[in-house]
Amino acid sequence: EAGRRQPFTPPVIAAIDLENPAPLSTEVVKAQIQTKAGEPLNLETLETDLKRIYSISTYEKADFRLVEREGKTNLVIDTKEKGWGPSYLRLGLALDNDFKGSAGYNLSANLTTLGINRRGAEWENAFQFGDTPRVFSEFYQPLDETLQYFIAPRIEYKSWNINGFYQGSTLVQYRATALEAGLDLGRQFGKWGQFRIGLRRGYGDVGVRIGPPAGDIKFNSGALFTSLSYNRLDNFNFPRHGTVADAVWMIPRKELGSDYSGNGLLVSWLSAFSVQRHTLLTSMTIQSALNSEGPLQNSYPLGGFLNLSGFATDELSGQHTGLARLVYYYELGSTGLGEFRMPLYIGGSLEGGNAWATKSEISGRSLLLAGSLLVGADTYLGPLYLAYGQAEGGHHSFYLYLGHKF
User: Fold this and answer.
1) CA angle 119–125–127, rounded 5-degree value
2) Three-state SS across 252-302?
3) Is the pLDDT of residue 4 over 70?
């Protein structure tokens, strides 16, 4: 019948050519392609191939074209290297004040360099100044062309406070300092998951900052490290859909140089649900020494914006912590000029949790309730929050925060 559209007949691909101007090896790009020469073109497979190539952090675009040569059809895959980078700087700011004479601050910067070598190595460096100084560096090196397996040496220095907290008062405050190195081997699962196993070895000291004077205590750390992460959030700044979950198991052992043998487990989960401009986040975080009793420096912190809001950052600590929270926010619209417009949000949170020194102290009656009211903006420097939090016992704080909270 005249005018009827003819069905598409997939051509047989004679050869696959790559236009790969990026610094990555051509073999790395080829390893992402499941389309085969000598077979009819499958558009679904090709679309998945292009998405897999595009997901490599080096590329801005991945496209294709069909070229007829000597009566045969060749598939040409074009890749375009990002016109920005390869180094990316992310800044962070955390301020809290209870207007009772107590205030805290941290300034941070994270510099990540991509595409360092032909297999797409990445180098991350993080610096933090303020109440909790931290310097961190990790070199992420893929081991094969598929970019699935990797090795990651790392080193970290940090200093932090540990509070002995009881009925609204800090009885004693310790200051811990540690230097730790590690080496991980891992498996990457696309852009949504990762498994790691590695070793940690370090040393440090703990001293009294507020309280009866006492000499510093030296310590050694050595542990087997394992982690499993899953991330399907649609947005890291203000997510609307998806789930993120993490599990970390630290296994300190004297045979690895630690002063004690025990366990440490962290499990966290967050899911986002949205209807039009309304978003609800549900999340839970558990940290526990399990059946072991770790030393003071292995205490888990709790407190701060969206982590029992109303308390100062890391004001509580214990061998076991638990936190459940509901976070709601509404997208008001956006503000700014031209292309430089930022989405604005208002919302709040309901939170419950606590930190416990021993497992026998854990009970529903010991849970602390907290909540917050927040105003947020998705800026070009990252998510920005201005919030007020209040918790049981008369704890309240104002927060100004720049950086990821989810």
Assistant:
1) 170
2) ECHHHCCCCCCCEEEEEEEEEEEECCEEEEEEEEEEECCCCCCCHHHCEEE
3) no
In this predicted model, what pLDDT tens digit does every residue of 235-280 receive, in sequence order?
989 999 999 999 999 999 999 999 999 999 999 999 999 999 999 9
209, β-bridge pairs: none
Q: Could you tell me the two tokens for 74?
A: 């060749």
Residue 370 has pLDDT above 60, yes or no: yes
What is the full DSSP assignment across 333-398? EEEEETTEEEEEEEEEEEEEEEEESSGGG--GGGPEEEEEEEEEEEETTEEEEEEEEEETTTEEEE
Asked whether 281 and 271 are in contact (CB, 8 A), the reply is yes
Closest C-alpha to 397, from 315, 327, 328, 280: 315
Contact 116, 100 (CB under 8 A): no
Q: What is the pLDDT of residue 154?
A: 98
Instruction: Return d(Cα 378, Cα 403) in angstroms, integer.
Output: 10
Let me know how long the chain is. Answer: 406
Q: Are strands 13-19 and 72-81 parallel, antiparallel or unpaired?
A: parallel
Largest CA distance in the chain: 96
Indicate the pTM of the whole model.
0.89
Instruction: Report the alpha-carbon distance of residue 324 to residue 39 in Å, rounded.
Output: 52
Query: For residue 273, with 0-12 CB atoms within 10 Å meaning exposed, 13-18 middle and 19 or more buried, which class applies?
Result: middle
Instruction: Please tell me the distance from the alpha carbon of residue 156 to that of residue 90, in angstroms, as a whole number.
Output: 18
- pLDDT class of 169 with cuts at 50, 70, 90: low
Position 336 scores a pLDDT of 66
- The structure tokens listed for 44 are 């679904």
CA–CA separation, 295 and 299 (whole Å): 7
Has residue 167 got a pLDDT over 60? no
38-61 pLDDT, tens digit each: 999 999 999 999 988 888 888 888
Task: Name the β-bridge partners of 343.
Answer: 334
Residue 221: the pLDDT is 97
The Cα 151–Cα 136 span in angstroms is 17
* Better-scored residue on pLDDT, 285 or 292: 285
Contacts of 283 (CB under 8 A, 6+ apart): 268, 269, 270, 271, 323, 324, 325, 327
